[in-house]
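Supplementary Methods, section 5.1.

A reviewer requested that the exact input to the structure prediction be made available. We therefore reproduce it here, unchanged from the version used in the analyses.
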Amino acid sequence: QLLIGGVAFHIRDHIRRHRLMQLTPGMIIGTLLGLASLSYLNDSFIQIFLAVFIFCYLGRGKLFPRALREKLRALPAFPVAAVGGWIQGIIGTGGPIFVMYTKKDTKHYTDFRANMLVILLITSLVRLVASVPMVLVTVEILTIALYCLPFFLLALFAGQKAHGHIPENIFFLVIDALLVLSALSLLVKALL
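The structure derived from this sequence is encoded token-by-token as follows.
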């Protein structure tokens, strides 16, 4: 995720700096708290919590009355960022929280993509820097990362090339489908 900074730099004109400045303190504090609470929380609990949260978000039109949806939409950036950072710190996948928040806050999918790239870059940097003294970054993890690196770079390149050719409504449908897959994956991991 650290390499996505290069892509974010390429599309920096679409980054909503004001919104990112609002999110950053919560992301940093949440990520550090998540890392600190790693040894105290059950991974399965967090995975189920996040999966339920994602399903509630995707079913929000059916599950929540309009007034409640408007209140949730108006949540300030700090608590949303802190929860996303906390989950990022614990299991490394706080992305769905940020996807949900950023999706409702951006009008165009290029803006959404640019802001998500920076959010993931910030939380990954915080998690990496804080993980080193906690000895969470091992030689085994670095070796796995090196094996995955060519595939990740290929995916970044393909995404950058395909981005302008995907209609916006299809892009957001794919985002929702990825959220469903993320939630299902979390449930499978938690229950098996």
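The CA atoms of residues 116 and 136 lie 25 Å apart. These observations are discussed further in the main text.
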